[in-house]
Amino acid sequence: MAFDPNNLSDEVLKFLSERHLATLTLLRPDGTPHVTPVGFTWDDEAKLARVITWDGSNKARLLSASGGGQAAVCQVDGGRWLTLEGLAVVSGDPDRAAEGVKRYAQRYRQPKERGAERRVIEISVDRMMGRA
């Protein structure tokens, strides 16, 4: 079932706030998928999914090298699942990274300190599907 990211039900928003891990899928330069487990957060106001990482991670390097690209993040809990898709960019901007860390700490736990190596992946979500 498709969902409108601009008009999510309380049920979908609740599922996006519960503690669930997910997978992040990015495309390598040769078109093959790079899939990795992640924690992510949803910013309903900005329509952004955020994934915190560090500058040496494969996901950060892939997005840095390409200047951004299409991404999908998917969380599953039994029969409930959501996939969020959109254009992803990686940023080392301290304010954007701090926002990602703050939201991650609220949903999961305080992450390891990365200092200047901290990066945040921001996915501008324009498509959602699933069963929440």
Please characterize this protein's 3D structure.
- The chain has 132 residues and is of the alpha+beta class.
- It has a single domain (2-131), classed as Pnp Oxidase, Chain A, CATH 2.30.110.
- It has helices at residues 10-17, 58-66, 94-107, and strands at 2-3, 22-27, 33-38, 41-43, 48-54, 69-77, 80-91, 118-131.
- Strands 1, 2, 3, 4, 5, 6, 7 and 8 form an 8-stranded antiparallel β-sheet that branches.
- A hairpin with a 4-residue loop joins strand 4 (41-43) and strand 5.
- The longest helix is centred in the C-terminal third of the chain and has 14 residues, at 94-107.
- 32% of the residues are buried.
Helix content: 10-25%
What is the SS-derived class?
Answer: alpha+beta
Spatial gap, N to C terminus: 9 Å
Name of the CATH first level: Mainly Beta
Strand content: 35-45%
Mean pLDDT, rounded to whole units?
97
Count all strands and give the number: 8
State the fourth-level CATH superfamily: Electron Transport, Fmn-binding Protein, Chain A
Largest sheet: 8 strands, antiparallel
Q: In terms of quaternary structure, what is this?
A: single chain
